[in-house]
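>> received
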Amino acid sequence: MKTHNGYASVLAMTIGGMLAASPAHAFEFNIYGVGHLSADSVDDGSSTDEGVASNSSRLGFKGNHDLGGGMKALFQAEAGIDLTGQGGNDGNGGSPDDGDVFTNARDSYVGLAGDWGTLLAGKLGGLNQWVYDYNLFADQVGDLGNIWGGSGLPGRVTSTLHYRTPDFSGLSVGFSYIPDEDNIAAAPNITPAASAPLPSDPSPPNVNSDDIWLVKADYASGGLKLGGAYTNIDLRANDWEVWAITGSYDFGRFTVGGGWQNESDMGGAAGNDRDSYTLGASAKVGTSGTVKAQVAHSDGDASNSDATQWAVGYDHALNKYVTVYGAYAATDNDSAAAFSANNYGKGDAVTPALGDDPGAFSIGLVVTFDAQVWPR
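>> returned
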């Protein structure tokens, strides 16, 4: 932990110098975070285990500096935290060392913003740019990413350059470019046909990508939200292409939403394609409760590689900072599929054996904060 203490000291001195040098109201600085713990009972299809998980808990620093002329400099540094103190039980990618509290980098960047839009550089969203458009079980059991990310699509990508246009009457478009940084290194949860094998090694030769391009459009008007995304991952052998469409409507007392995702030549394997879908709804109960249900299905071209996940849950907001919840999720896998029910964003994740049908029940507590440090 000496390394983390050293980072903290450098960060504190840097922030202190910036605050001292900045005129009043020209510099804004916030500290924010999420603490999310849950008690889980997980059946991987053959046995059941109980435990406590830290689920995408995080600590971040963000701010902006007014440069004048309508332009601002932006920064954000966000780290995953394992509140169980195990180092790898966190849903953020884990730490290489057991017992660490700080684990893996999350969205972190510097950038500029003005009337012309926003330009960022750092570690930013890949699949995360659309998987949370309507995801009622984000960081809980039943997270949509268990299905839509089950083929190995990265949630975040490093060394990213990202530009987003200004808002044009509810419409904005983002463009991301990721140069050759070997960002695709996730083992998929499916076994395709023998003629089109997907890589299972964390860094096989055909998985190291040359470039990644991503375009994400968003439109919002009243309760309506629409999204569309296209990604091209150059895997040297073949391009892995992804299309996605999402939509939702907020009626006030209840919401409904869903989406479609298409992947072609997954992992660089020609003809290895997959379509995934989701549909969900939520309804308010009283002034503080929300009941919700969501189903996701993934249909692969390879034989016996389909999977269906469904989830039901109840969230209860104690106030705007604290939520308690209960959720249950189950995944039905074909004989050559191994999609999880408690992986994406979840600590203590379990990947079942091929053909097994996992299920997970969870009771959780989420505490959030966002405190403005400067100006006060």
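>> Residues 185-207 have pLDDT under 50 and may be disordered.
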